[in-house]
Each structure stands twice: as structure tokens, then as C-alpha cells.
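Justification of resources, computational component.

The compute hours requested in this renewal are based largely on the per-chain cost of generating structure records like the one below. Each record pairs the submitted sequence with a full C-alpha cell output. That output is archived, and it is also reused by downstream analysis tasks.
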Amino acid sequence: MKLFGFLAFTAFILSSCATVEKEEAIDMTKVRTEIQAMEDAYAAGEKAKDADAVAAYYSDDAISYSRNNQPLSGKAAIRADIAKNIAKDTTDNYNVYKIVDVFAEGNSVVEIGSWTEFDASGSEKSNGNYMSYFQKRDGKYVCVRDMSTTTSPDKSDM
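The structure output for this chain reads:
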């Protein structure tokens, strides 16, 4: 009986001394830089009217909740909508995307950002906010979900 008690006590001590695997610390500065680079590439793709460059932001299974539209499911549908909008755009307007806040845990990142649309002369046309959810896949972040709003009044309300 004493031997059983000793073995149980020893097992308890050893199990309590086992090292708990620590989660790897996330370098938020690096995450913020990576996400902002993605936003900059997205904006550059829009400005160049390159639907493929813009769609590179998204995962194959992404869902995009754009302002004033039904949700778009899948990268192919998102890319098709981007191409349609680019084809209709006869202006030289461009957008700038800026991170407001970033939250990260494990392989997931949530970004809250703001966007501003400028005309060719650099005057502000409209602005709004967005939220994007990223997952790290194959070593790089891709947008899995995004949603955008505008702070500009709807022209039909004027």
C-alpha cells in the first residue's frame, strides 16, 4: 500500500512538473505590417484596374459583404464583381486603405480599417470603414471574410 501511495504521489508530482506548451508570442508589429502591405496591394490593383491583383487578397472560400450588394461567395465570384466594377469605372478615382486596429490570435487576424476615395486631383470623394478577417494559410495571410460600410450619405437621401 505504501508503494502504491508513493508511486501515485510520484506520478502526481511528475505530471504537475510537466511543461505546458506555451503559445508562440505574436509579433503585432509584423502582423500589422503584413496586413497593411496587403491593403496597399489591393489599392494598387484597384488603381491599375487589375482584377486579378485585387482578388489575390482573398482566399478561395472567401465571402465578401460589400456595401449596397448581396454577399459574394468564393474568390471567383469576388473577382468577377471586381472586374465588372473596373469595366464600368471611367474615372481615375482611387482608394487608400488604412488600418485602425488589428487583433491577432494563433493563425487568425481581424483588421478594422478605414478607406478614403480620392478623385484624380487628390480631393476626397467619400470614405468609410471596413472589417476583414484573415487566416494564415501556407505561410501567408488571406482574407476569408470582409465587410465594408460608407460614411457618406446615400445620394437618394439628398
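DSSP finds four helices and six strands in the chain. Residues 58 and 143 are 5 Å apart (CA to CA).
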